[in-house]
Amino acid sequence: MKGKVHEETHAVRVAGVAMVYTLERKSVRNINLRIRPDASIYVSAPHRVPLAEIERFIISKGSFIMDALERIQSSHAERSLYDDGEDAYYLGEKLTVRLSMGPETHIKREGDYLFLQIPEPENVSARIDVVKRWYAGEAEQIFMNVVREVYEEFRCTYPVPFPHVTIRQMKSRWGSCRPALGKITLNLLLVTAPYDELRYVVVHEFAHFIEPNHSQDFWRIVAGFEPEYRLRRQQLRSLPTKW
Questions:
Q1: Cα distance between residue 206 and residue 175, in whole Å
Q2: CA 178/CA 153 separation, integer angstroms
Q3: Is the pTM of this model over 0.70?
Q4: Can you tell me the distance from the alpha carbon of 80 to that of 153, in angstroms, rounded to the nearest whole number?
Q5: What is the pLDDT of residues 153-192, one digit of tens each?
Q6: Rg of the Cα trace of the chain?
Q7: What is the C-alpha to C-alpha distance for residues 145 and 199, in angstroms, rounded to an integer?
Q8: Of 53, 87, 148, 156, which sits with the fewest C-beta atoms within 10 Å of its C-beta?
Q9: Rounded to 5°, angle at Cα 151 from 239 and 224
Q10: What phi and psi values does residue 92 have, to the nearest 5 degrees?
């Protein structure tokens, strides 16, 4: 008959963060560490190994622990994307998702709600895909209206072209400009941002038609069309983006 499992709870600082872990003493040869699906930290160790040695081992695995916890957190966050009652954002406004099952895929905004109907509501990838396609359809007209507005302002002072505009999802940029091609690319997720932040990004990219680099002259041009550009940049950093 197996002996009674004896578990202890301890805390140790890993990468400057206090972490609670469960320690089980058992008949094993080495110290073992694992991150459970619920993000708890479990350690098994031989009976006679001092606690200080165990905690040195845990600390040495700091990068592994932090990476594992981040993956679990991201996985949990993804499962809730566009679930019923979750938030979605549109031009800076927070919408509440109302998810339902139906034979056909359908999405629409009504007031403060985003109604999403799909055949398999539990399918996270399907939910994300439908919302992305809806965002893409909305973004095309919204972004082009802002581009036309900014273009009319710029052309009164600078010989800028009316750009070819591409909209796509980008991981690390809100926008990009290729002056030689007369092309501007805007991040699809800007459709979730308030108008002022969207306009700042468009102004930023138009300024690159005049100054390709982020020189003092470049920021002077930006400031001429968007005096509060520093605030807009800061606000974009805190945008509650998804995906």
A1: 10
A2: 20
A3: no
A4: 42
A5: 999 999 999 999 999 998 889 999 999 999 999 999 999 9
A6: 26
A7: 10
A8: 156
A9: 70
A10: 85, -5
